[in-house]
Amino acid sequence: MFSKEIQDLAISVIASLNAQEKLIITVESCTGGLVAAALTSISGSSSVVYGGFVTYANEAKNQMAGVPMALIEEYGAVSEQVAIAMAKGALANTSADIAISVTGIAGPTGGTKEKPIGLVHFALAMGDNIYHSKELFGIDKSREPIREASVLRALKMVMDIL
Known about the structure:
There is one protein chain. The protein has 162 residues and is of the alpha/beta class. The protein has one domain (4-161): Maf protein, CATH 3.90.950. It is built from 6 helices and 5 strands. Strands 2-1-3-4-5 form a 5-stranded mixed β-sheet, with helices on both faces. The longest helix has 19 residues, at 143-161. It is globular and about 45 Å long. The mean pLDDT is 95.
């Protein structure tokens, strides 16, 4: 289901989480739960994966991750501010130690000049620390390659912090 690169990275993330006795939660929009799926495809993940929220609709971002609707209305669902709020909200409302969020435009529709197809924001919350990353995977890519690249980037972000 996942590329060897994603599988290998997921194995490393699970091993690092186990070694540090940390729990992770995912909060995903454009990836639709694929980050959680990559992590849970690894044997032993149940000891470190708290769970995941698929917050595709703006209302889900609000209700499940506590993202204020005013923030979504001001900056848009695909923004640094919303990605950070997604991660912070998941961390605040669960017993997880780390939250990784992903929100973006996977296409093939939905892009604008300001927010083109392939634009993805990532945020990681751990304790009081918040990390953000923005990627533009390219308007020439189709939906699945953008989602796959997003999963890979999210896992790399977690691994970099661990």
